[in-house]
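Me: Here is a favour to ask of a fellow structure person. Could you put it straight underneath, so I can go through it closely?

Assistant:
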Amino acid sequence: MRSKFILAFILVLVAVFSIFLFTSVSADDWYEYSEPDIDEMTVYVNGEMVWYGYCYYDPINVTDRWRCMTNQHETPALEREEDAEVKVTFKANDDFLESKVKAWIGGYHEDIEAETPLFDVFEGNTYTKTLDLFIPKDIDARDSYTLHVDIQQRHDLSGVDEADLDTEIQRIANWLEIMSVELYDSGHYYGSCSGCIMTFEAGATIYVDVAVKNRGNHEAEDVYVRVSLNELCIERTVYLGDLETSDDDDDEDAKTITVALQVPSDTFAGTYTLETKAYNDEVSDTEFRSVIIEGPGQQQQEHEGEVEIMPQITSNEIVMGKGSVYTLLIANFGDEEEDFVISALGTEGGCGETACAGWAEVTINPQAFSLAPGESKLVNVYVAVSENAVEGEHIFSVKVDNDGKSQQFSMVANVTKGEGNGLDLKTILTIVGIIFAAAIIVLLIILLTNKKTTEKTEVEESYY
């Protein structure tokens, strides 16, 4: 009677598994001849159960035999430049010290992987571990990729301790990306160096080469490129056209266009923001560059003010939970000592579902200082983005108080998810050092120009 019940139970299991198999993407089964270490494991991707494996005791004709079965009944779609949440639930039949769960994707030219810290496993308990895999934006949506999930320990485990899942890479529906912005005039070429100090003469024509790519899942129709010098209220918009969706050689999913922007000949010397924007009715992407204008207006501007404030880095892409640095160069060209106080505005709010004090914390160094005549100082504004910040563009201001006057300078932080763009301290110090060296050269040129002008004035006065 008991053997008939066992046989009936096994037949029911086989029938259920056979029905389940028809809706599965892939399935596998095998025998273990000792009790398996892991007899049940489930894998969820972005909240959906996509894979299940289990082992059961199968005494038919052979003693001490376990049959293990796995099946993948959904193909998860992984979206580019997004985190894929991989949750693993498993049950163990033994104790395992210093174990971990690892998930990774093969076939991409760099490692796409995540793993848990080491933890201890005890017999009979059920464990749940969650990992986040960041899917790169340039992974090819046409290729096939396998998501591997593995429970790892110092020795090889038996049973359903690992899963290999077929996946599909999903493009974002609408997504335009400015791949490069290159600046030049008739005598200078600055390429796509986003951290360079670009100098042009008043009256010059700035040529801007803009490369735009459609990384979305749909055709980008009627794309425009607009280039502007915001402080001078001048801009030019050029029609780029339609961008296809595929990376195939036959399809035009990326285009380059040149936009010419005329700088007025009477522009005062100073630092200006050049904004480049690619857009259509659905989506847009924007990049900012700082440019220095020199020319006829320089002499008048120098006599109008004794303090020069020159933003150096005004735009950064920052990963959630990481930081980046912005810089201001402040110089005193006057005859008296000047006091300065620096502060930041506009980092309140901007949080996701989890509350936070603000989308970023700002540290300014130095925050208050004095400059003697002829001295200059580079101010570092370090922005640490909250892990709960809303993804996208955030604009804040750096305020400079001096001699009862206040000036505000707009800064842009493009907050993103994933790896790759947060700066560590060593990198920040290197960038700041390079910028400071370049800025000192600019200041020396200005000081020498002032000196020559003064000497020339003195000679003319003595002549008369």
